[in-house]
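Hey,

The postdoc asked me to send both predictions to you directly instead of through the lab channel. I've kept everything plain text so nothing gets mangled by the mail client. Protein one:
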Amino acid sequence: MYSFKKNFAKGIIRSNPIFILMLGLCPTLAVSTSLDNAVGMTGAFLFVLLASNIIISSIRNYIPDRVRIPVFIVIIATLVTVVDLMLQGFVPALSKSLGIYVPLIVVNCIILGRAEAFASKNGVSDSIADALGIGVGFGLAIFLISLIRQLFGTGALDLFGHHLFTIPGLGENPVTIFMLPMGAFFVIGVLLALFRWVGVTECE
C-alpha cells in the first residue's frame, strides 16, 4: 500500500509530466484554450496511459527485448484508436476541437516513456499507481493552464455549454492574446517559474 501511494503521489507533483519533466508540451499548449478541451484530453490521456501500463506490465516478461518498443507502440496505438472512435461517436464536437492531438497520443513521449521506464519493469499494482499519478498530474496541469487562458482570454468561464460566470470588465474587453500560441507559452512559462521558485524538483 505504501508503494502504491508513493508511486501515485510522485506523479502529481514531484514528477509532474508538464511542470517538472516538461514532456507532452505540444498537445498541452495546443488544446489548452478551454476547460472542455482540458477535460477531454485528460480523459483520453488517462485512459490510454492506464490501460497501456496495465497491459504492458502484465505481459512484460513475455516481450522479447529487441521488439519491446514496437510492441509498446502497437498497444498504445490500439488504445488510442479506441478512444478516438469513442470521442467521434459520442462527443463529436469535442473530438473536432481536440483534432489531431488525440491520434498523436500514440507518439506522446509521456505514455511511451512510462511504458519503457516503469510499466516494463514493475508489477501491475505499481504500474496502475504510476499511471494514475502521472495522469492526474497531467490533468491538473492542463486544467490550470486552460483555466487561466480561458479566464483572461475570454473574460468568462464556460464548461460544456454551461456558463459559469463572467469577470466584470474582462467580459467586454478580454485579453485575447491568452488564446493565441504566445499566450500559451507565457502562461506555462510563468507556471514553470513558480514551480521552480517554490523549490519543486524532479523526484528521484
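Protein two:
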Amino acid sequence: MKLPIPPKFPLVAIPTLGILCLITPQIGAASALFFGILAATVLGNPYAQHAKLWTSRLLSTSIIGLGAGMNLITVAHTGLTGIGYTAISIALTMFIGLALAMALRTDRETSLLVTVGTAICGGSAIAALAPTLQAKHENISVALGVVFMLNAIALVIFPPIGHFFELSQHQFGLWSALAIHDTSSVVGAGLKYGPEALETGTTVKLTRALWIVPLVFIIQAVLQHQRKTEGPTQTQKKKYPWFILGFLTMAALFTYMPEWQSYGDMIELTAKRLLVLTLFLIGSNLTLSNIKSVGLKPFILGIALWLIVASLSLLAITQSWI
C-alpha cells in the first residue's frame, strides 16, 4: 500500500536513491535490491519503462567490466588442477536444480536463474544469464533475493560448521567456494576462518565464475533449438550473449597487460557499482503483486538446492573424494 505522498516526490526520490546506490560504497547489491523494492512499494516508480530499458544495458556493461578483475593465468592454473570436480559439481547442481524445478513446477526462467546462480557464482551468474533469457524483472528479483538471503546465512553459519567438522583451512576454502553463492560471501567466510581458507576460497571461486561463459552459450543454444522445434509461433529477434565475449576480452587484456592493472582495478570497481545500480533498478520495478505472482516455490527451490549442494560438497571433502 502506497503512503499519501506528494505526487512529484517520486520524480526526485527514485533518481536520488539510484545515484546513492551508484556512488555509496557501503550500499551493496542486496541493500540496493531491497531499496528498489521498498521504493517501488512505498512510492511507486514513475520511471518504470526507462528502468526496464536501462537494466539490460547496464547488466551487460557490468559483466564486461567485471572481466577486468579476472586473471586468466591464475584461473587456468587453478582450473587445470580442479577441472574434474568443478565440472562434475556444476553439472550435478544443474541436474538437481532442474529436477527440483520440475517437481515443484516452478517457472522456467526463475528455475534457471536460481539453479545457475547456485551452480556458479550467485548474483553475477544471474546477471549474466538474465539478458540471454530475456527474463522478467520479477523473476530476476526473486532469484537474486534467494541468493542474497542464503549468502547472508552462509556467512554466519559456515565457519562454525567448518570448525565442528575440523576442516583444514584448505578444505574450508574449497567447501565455501563450492557451496556459497557469491564471491563476496566466500571472501567474508574465508576471512573468519583463516588466510589459507581465504586464498583457496577466492581463487577457486573466481575460477568457477568463468564457467558462466560456456554455460550461457549452452543455455542459449538449447533455447534456440526449443524455439525451432516449437515452430514459428512468434517472430522474436534473436539475442546472443556477446557481452560474454566482451568479458573474456577484458579479462585477457588486463591479464597480458599487467602494467595496465591500475586501470583494470578502476574498471572493475566501476562495473561493481553499475551492477549495484542495476539491482536497484530491477527492484524498483518489483511490486507486491509481482512477488505474489511468482509465489514461494522459487524460495523453496533455492533453499532446497543450496542445502543439497552444501551437504554433498561437505561430504565429498570430509571423505577426501576431492
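Summary for protein two, as requested: The radius of gyration is 20 Å.

Thanks,
C.
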